[in-house]
Amino acid sequence: MTRYIIRRLLQAIPLLFIISAVLFVLMQNMGDPIATLGGRMVTRPADRQRLARQLGLDKPIYVQYLFWLIGNDWTKADLDGDGIPDTQGTRHGVLRGDFGTSLVNRGVPVVQVIADRLPNTLILMLSAEVVIILGSLLVGVYSALHQYSIVDNLVTSVSFIGYSMPIFLIALMTMYIFAVNFKKWGLPYLPTVGMFDPNVGETVPQVIWHMVLPIFSISFISLAAYSRYIRSTMLEVLSQDYIRTAKAKGLPRREITFIHALKNASLPIVTIVGLELPLLLGGAVVTERIFAWPGMGRLFLDHLSASDTPVIMGILMLIAIAVIIFQIITDVVYAWLDPRIRYH
Amino acid sequence: MSAQVNLNAIPRLAPDEIESPPLSLGELTWRRFRRHKMAIVGVVVLILLIFYTFGGSFFISEKYANQTDTSQRLNAPSTLHRFGTDTVGRDILARTIYGGQISLLIGLTAMILETLVGILIGASAGYYGGWLDSILMRFTEAMLNIPQILLLLVMAKFFGGKIPNIPLLGRTFSGSVVVIILIIGLTSWPYLARIVRAEFLSIKENEFILAARATGAPPFQIIFRHILPNSIAPIIVSATLGVANAITLEAYISFLGLGVQPPTATWGNMLEGAYKYIESAPWLWIFPGTLIVLIVLAINFLGDGLRDALDPRSRTV
Amino acid sequence: MGTLLDVNNLKTRFHTPEGTVFAVNGISFKIDEGETLALVGESGCGKSVSMLSILGLIAIPPGEIASGTAIYRGADLLKMEEIDLEHIRGKEIAMVFQDSMTSLNPVLSIGRQITETLHTHMGMNHEQAVKRTIELLEWVGISDAPDRLGAYPHQFSGGMRQRVMIAMALACTPSILIADEPTTALDVTIQAQIVELVIHMREQMGMAMIWITHDLGVVAGLADRVNVMYAGYIVEEANVDTLYDDPRHPYTNSLLAALPRADRRRDHRLKSIPGAPPNLLVEPKGCPFAPRCEYARERCWDENPGLSVVGTNHRIACWVDIKTGDLR
Q1: How far is CA B282 from the centre of its chain?
Q2: Residue A248 to residue C121, Cβ atoms within 8 A
Q3: Would you list the DSSP string of A299-315?
Q4: C291 near C284, Cβ under 8 Å?
């Protein structure tokens, strides 16, 4: 098992290099970083050139990539344009943990910029993941056990509609119903902006209350898809011979459903949930924008518009690493859970 | 008279074969499809939407759809503007018609692009195997490891403003439409490539492929005349659902402001910033939003039906 | 010896999109304590379905038990509530299935799959259940039983798995063991081992058995009585010796004639039964075997014969006397 993990990790390394190279190339021509960094002060060509040299943008792209990877503190850069490299570089490179500094938040290390926002997104993501897993299990198992009942048909219809809707539409609808209209009708309504009410402060109840609508929006689509999936998996499992054997042994129905059947049906869920992460992260971007949630998704959008390349690269690499690690974890967990793989 | 019946040596006739004539694959597929009533509903809705968007342009000109009139901004639905007006006074009904055309266009074209790329890469990897397979699959994996939306946003920024407006058929299409088609097509192929590769890997092992090779058929012929037709089912399903996916993705990016730029309308960019007016002007997002849901639903129904019809092994949910 | 199970006029149907399948068409039989009854017939003749119907293991819908009673110790199993049936299944009447790979839960250890019946039916606690399970496993011939408790079905060979299934079924000492083609999927040598094992268990425990099979070879050494089924009907009932010595139904005759025998000449051609398996979508008017029967008369097509006595404990459902070729 450990060998498997190590092998996967090793395989991931070239993958990450490829990803970073592809992304890096894309990052070029992404607007005007010089303008971002310099602000209004950069109108004269000389100023632009100086900033370009400072950012290392005057070098060919593969050199830029190299510097990004391993830094430039081992070489001197020519900052004053006289053709003589004389200023020591200060960057350590990504491989040593230095993602550079943000162009928007001048001088602040990218790592810190991201770290400030990361926890907020994590809270949202992890809670959403829990909601998705529990919710789809509940709904899926119930639907399977009460096939073709009114509830089942209702759930199927809602699910179908649900995963045909883009996230922001769900967000808009829920906002409309639970925030706007509830307010109009005098019912207690859900907040739609930010993580907490500035007047009350960042308390746990505040944050939770503010999380309700965003989590609902993020998880609804996945919930819709997975409850259908669990339903069909459960139905398939329930028609298997070993369930017939369990019944023939006179085991109580509850035991058959939740132990004999569910244990088999929930195996594929592990894989799917694990691989869901990229999608959730994408959804977070939109949701955070709508609900003004101060997380990484919003950070991404804001800094993308400002062409803040280092931060964008940082976020994307972080996500790529997270996705890969999550994939490995998922595979390992699955192999551990399925005795046919564990004791082959 | 004693009825001495001797049904001798009829080789294994299954009971229902005796009663009904054998059906061709096409007929069997149609029958199962027909049973899937939802798919029929999907097709009907799809046709209606196509009539709405393309037929509607006979009644309303594009100029009218793009005509701004700030004195009429944010009007609620009325007899003059049945769906209301948007933030700069344009008629929303007209914009949903022309927006629909663009959304559908994007959906179809992006799908074609991603299908072509997906088949190309998947087939090459699956057929040739070896190092080509390894490289292509590494690349595919790399693409899959980045959330598509983020990739799209970055690429939209990258290509943004690079492609000029295109005059075609008497109308002007914003260059951003081409950008969107390109980037959606170029980021959606990995899913299909994996499916195609898997199909190729399994079909390649069949004996009729060996026979084709033994008779000297060149790889091109084997791929396109032998393997591909046998793997067409998942490709069709994937392509169908790919249209819905492309329309949705366009909506996402346009919603975030990086998609198709006005004045060209799409159902997606009509939703941009609509969350700011959620209370004051819900008609801004209700109409285009509903249309998006309708078309995606219709295509999903259709895709589900096709999947059931074409793959006898798939289970119904 | 008392009668344990008395089944009368059992009819089971399935409602499918293609029509109604008449799977079991009015069968009746009795099982006494300690008796072994073999239920013989080709695939689809209704032998498995009838047993599953009795235990309430048929999915309803699309299944339907159209009529019949199955009296076990005074109570009708077909009319019982599910909760009461749960007390019977596994404890009083146990079943062993054909495919041990798919009939055992792949994600639960075999130890667990046996101990759970002991928990449920015998109220044992964990220690007692484990002890008994080890005993059972050793009894069915699984070596290193204590170590194997945590093993999973896929880690066993086919024959071993079948032994596990038998141990599982006999764990709560049922009065009746129903074995649904338990050896069909096994190699011939393993088959023999399993049959021997079962005979051994029967001697030890004295349970009654219903052995379902299509293989007349197995029946000879195992059963006391045999019921031959065709198209959902019982066409012949006899003691085992009588069946082999003096089969009276054309179908039984054909089945026996189709058996390869070591004492025949090498160039003796195997006799096969002409025609196609019966179409169960149609409720037959006359004798269901008529289309394939070499003795068929006009009456056979018009009227279903029903079972009638031809000897001691010997009944057949036939209009024709196969010895003479005339109507009876």
Answers
A1: 28
A2: no
A3: HHHHHHHTT-HHHHHHH
A4: no
- The pLDDT of residue B8: 35
List of chain B residues whose C-beta atoms are within 8 Å of the C-beta of residue C294: 4, 6
CB of C219 closer than 8 Å to CB of C211: yes
A86 touches chain B (CB under 8 A): no
Structure tokens at C308: 């009638």
- Interface contact B7-C279, CB threshold 8 A: no
The position carrying tokens 């060979």 is C157
- Chain C touched by A258 (CB under 8 Å): no
Residues B47, B310 contacting (CB under 8 angstroms): no
* Predicted pLDDT at B106: 92
Optimal mutation site among A147, A153, A169, A299, interface B, most CBs of chain B within 10 A:
A169
Reported as a single tens digit per residue, the pLDDT across C151-166 is 999 999 989 999 999 9
Subunits touching B (CB < 8 Å, at least 3 pairs)?
A, C
CB contact under 8 A, B149 and A286: yes
By Cβ distance, the residue of B4, B12, B13 closest to C296 is B4
The reply to whether residue B300 touches residue A29, judged by beta carbons under 8 angstroms, is no
Neighbours of A334 (CB within 10 A): 17
Tens digit of each residue's pLDDT (9 = 90 or more) over B212-260: 888 888 878 877 888 888 888 888 888 998 999 999 999 988 888 888 8
Give me the pLDDT at residue A81, please: 63
d(CA A23, CA A64): 13
pTM greater than the 0.90 cutoff:
no
Interior CA angle at B3 toward B1 and B6, to 5°?
150
- B216 to chain A, any CB pair closer than 8 A? The answer is no
User: In angstroms, rounded to a whole number, what is the distance separating the alpha carbons of residues B21 and C87?
Assistant: 49
Whose CA is closest to C179, among C220, C139, C223, C141?
A: C223
Beta strand C63-72 pairing with C3-16: antiparallel
Residues 43-82 of A with CB under 8 A from B: none
Q: Categorise residue C177: left if φ over 0, alpha if ψ from -120 to 50, beta otherwise.
A: beta
Average pLDDT along chain B: 79
Helix (H) or strand (E) holding C25: strand C19-32
The 3-state DSSP class for residue C318 equals coil
CA gap C132, B161 in Å, rounded: 78
List of chain C residues whose C-beta atoms are within 8 Å of the C-beta of residue A240: 102
Hey, what are C120's tokens? 């449920």
Listed residue (A224, A196, A331, A222) closest to A277, CA to CA: A222
B100-114 pLDDT, tens per residue? 888 999 999 999 999
Rounded Cα–Cα distance for residues C5 and C2 (Å): 9
The reported pLDDT for the residue numbered A304 is 86
Kindly report the nearest CA distance between residue C203 and chain A, in angstroms. 23
- Confidence at A162, pLDDT banded by 50, 70, 90: confident
Residues 6+ apart with CB under 8 A from A134: none
Most distant CA pair in chain B: distance in Å?
A: 98
The full DSSP string for A153-203 is HHHHHHHHHHTTS-HHHHHHHHIIIIIIIHHHTTS-----SSSS-TTT-S-
Whether residue B169 lies within 8 A of chain C, CB to CB, comes out as: no
Chain A residues whose CB is inside 8 A of the C173 CB are none
pLDDT digits (tens, 9 = 90+) for B13-22: 333 333 344 4
Which residues lie closer than 8 Å to C266 by C-beta, 6 or more apart?
none
pLDDT band at A106 (very low <50, low <70, confident <90, very high): confident
Estimate the share of chain B in helix, then strand, then coil, as percent rounded to the nearest 5: 70, 5, 30
CB contact under 8 A, A281 and B147: yes
Amino acid at the residue A101: T
C237 sits in which H/E element: strand C233-239
How far apart (Å, rounded) are the C-alpha atoms in residues A78 and C53?
89
